[in-house]
Every structure is written in structure tokens, then in C-alpha cells.
Amino acid sequence: MAARLDSLLALPLGSLRVRFLERGRAVPRGLLEALEEDPRAGARALAEAIRERRATNRAEGQRLRHLLRFETELWEAGHVHVAGVDEAGMAPLAGPVVAAAVVLPKAYKLKGLDDSKKVLDPERRVELAVAVKRDAVAWAVGRAEVEEIDQLNIYHAGLLAMRRAVDALALVPDFVLVDARRIPQCPAPQRGIVHGDALSASIAAASMIAKTTRDALMAEYDVQYPGYGFAVHKGYPTPQHEATLRSLGACPLHRRSFAPVRQALGLEPEQGSLFETSPG
User: Fold this and answer.
1) Which residues pair with 98 in a beta bridge?
2) Secondary structure class of 100 (helix, strand, coil)
3) Which band of pLDDT confidence, cut at 50, 70 and 90, is reported for residue 274?
4) Which DSSP helix (H) or strand (E) runs through 83?
């Protein structure tokens, strides 16, 4: 053991940093203490960075265990396939509302998994969505189109998208966890959890897939309907979008039951802006 420590300490500090911080290799017993006693300031700084990384990893592990508390309770009660369901696109002035349903493996932990609104980096959201799709027991998406939003209203269209996502799963879940609502004609028992996308791993996973799926759709629509900036604001009522709506008028993708769209068309309001304006 002493010989191995000596050989490690003889390496350049940059090599140790790459091995134990960037690559996350297991730190041999005694190395931290040796680095802390090393007369080189860089060695002591490396030891401190490794301890900070360990503390961060422990905190993330605790957060992920806590994020599974609803699923764990259901797994222990005998519900094998627990689906989380969430939607994206309730607030925008344009485009469909998209929902996702995800069944995670038992005790699943994915570093960084959270409510998609808390993950601000779009590339990181895509990475997490890809990992969830790869690891999930089952996942599916459902959507409600603009015409259905205008016909049903946005709240019921969101529920319709959620039900379609659950129905599209390759299996019938034993239990469904939903962000704050109850899905009509759900094929399994369900529970609505207020702020569920921040409290349940399954719902957070669904929010990640729903958000990234809808964002990709809006990027495609940006090519089909140029000039509106859909790839940038994703259809949300940003000042840029509302200004463009006034100058260009509404395209077929706009929700004609929403007040800003109706105003642009010279019509009386029906549905107001019920949600936050940030594209997230």
C-alpha cells in the first residue's frame, strides 16, 4: 500500500487531478491524508477538491434517494411498474402540448435528474432525456394539437395529452404518478402530486422527455413557419414573439383561443394567459 501511495505521489499533480476528479476514479486509502500533508500547495488544493467532490456526490445521492420516496413507497406496496406523467407547453401561444409517461427501473438514480424547468442548459436536458429513454422500462409521448387546444381549452388538452402518453406505453402501469392533476380514464390507480416534477423521479423523468420533445418539435416548426422565432422562444409569449405576432399575424400553429393571438387577429379574448411567460 505504501509503495502504491509513493508511486501515485510521484506523478504530476495534473495527472492525479485528471484521474481522481475528472475521471472520478476511486481514491486509494491514505492518499487524501498524504496529499493534505504534502508541502506542495497544489497537492493540498487537490485534496480539498476531492473532499468537496465527495461531499457533493453524497448530497446528490441523498437528493436522488429522496426523489424516489413516492416510487419506493409504491414499489414496497407491490406496484412493480410505476409511471410518472408530466406535460410541457401549457403556456405557449403556439404549438401542441406534449406529455410524456415514464416507467423507471426500481431504485433508479440518474445524476442531475430534476424538474426540467430547473435544468437551464438545453444540451444537459437533452442528455438527461436520452439517458432516461435508454434506461427506462417503458416510455412514451402523447400530444394534443392546436385545434384540440382551441376546442377543449388548454387545461383539458393537457389532460388529453397525458392520457395519450399513458395509453402509448408498451405496458399497462400498476400505478401512475401525475404532476398536480388526475388523468381522465386512466387505466391504473393514480395520484396527483403538487410540484410533482420536483418531488418524484418518475415525474421529473417525464418532464424531461416532454420538454425536450416539444422543443425539438418547435425547432422543426421554425423551418416550416419562418420568421416567428419558434426555435428560440418555443412559442412562449415572450416580447419578441408577441411583437412578431403583431407584425406578421397568426400562422396555423398559433392557438386562436389565447388572448394575444385573438388580439392580433382582431377578435375578442377567450382564453387568457394562464401561465408564466418564460420559455424555460
Assistant:
1) 88, 143
2) strand
3) very low
4) strand 82-88
Give the structural domain span for 154.
Answer: 78-220
pLDDT in tens, 164-183: 999 999 999 999 999 989 99
| Domain match, 83 and 55 both | no
Task: For residue 55, give every residue at least 6 positions away whose Cβ sits within 8 Å of its Cβ, in sequence order, or none.
Answer: none
Co-location of 132 and 25 in the same domain: no
CA atoms lying within 13 Å on the CB side of residue 218? 28
The answer to whether 253 and 233 have CB atoms below 8 angstroms apart is: no
User: Which whole-number Å values give the CA distances from 113 to 64, 117, 164, 185, 279, in the listed order?
Assistant: 8, 11, 24, 29, 20
Examine residue 127 and state whether it is found in any structural domain, yes or no: yes
Cα separation of 69 and 65, whole Å?
Answer: 7
> How far apart (Å, rounded) are the C-alpha atoms in residues 65 and 112?
12
pTM greater than 0.85 (yes/no): no
Torsion, Cα 39 43 49 50, to 10 degrees, reads: -110
Beta-carbon count within 10 A of 149 CB: 27
